[in-house]
């Protein structure tokens, strides 16, 4: 069964550790990761930080990178294409042997946070076994099992997905608004308060699982 895993990898066990150490304020987020063979990964990466020149220099000097190319620059952001040539054996294993899809990867202080889609639980087990054999860390934070509904991809319950989808289809989120909460609640057989709470919880799950934002309190 298709499974989505949120996991943590220590920065020192992954690519760009030199850059993260040299420019502590920098944050990375991948747009795309492509495995090109021979233990080389070619990602499209956003690098965010106020000192873009220091980031450029650190990337060029980073022993885990090669062929660094800055595609675009916006104030404190760089969009970079590069080859990751070191500390990427775990990603290569995910993409090749486990046939996983890396949905998102971003640096978070002294670690990387990954969101990975595995086609089966057995493929996730292959990654776990690989890490044990290689002495690598793959700390699973959460597991979501997709059971045929799109809600699972975003960490929504079926009820939250139905409420959000109905609200969208009927124009509740349009400007100007074409449907009111009372009308939606009646269509869904819910009270005004129950629907309001369901929409808020659904929004919270969407933001957490798509924007990777962390709430101030749980």
From TrEMBL:
Residues 156-207 form the HTH bat-type domain. Residues 11-145 form the Bacterioopsin transcriptional activator GAF and HTH associated domain. It holds the Pfam family BAT. The keyword Cytoplasm does not apply. Keywords: Transcription, Transcription regulation. The keyword Transcription regulation applies. This is Helix-turn-helix domain-containing protein.
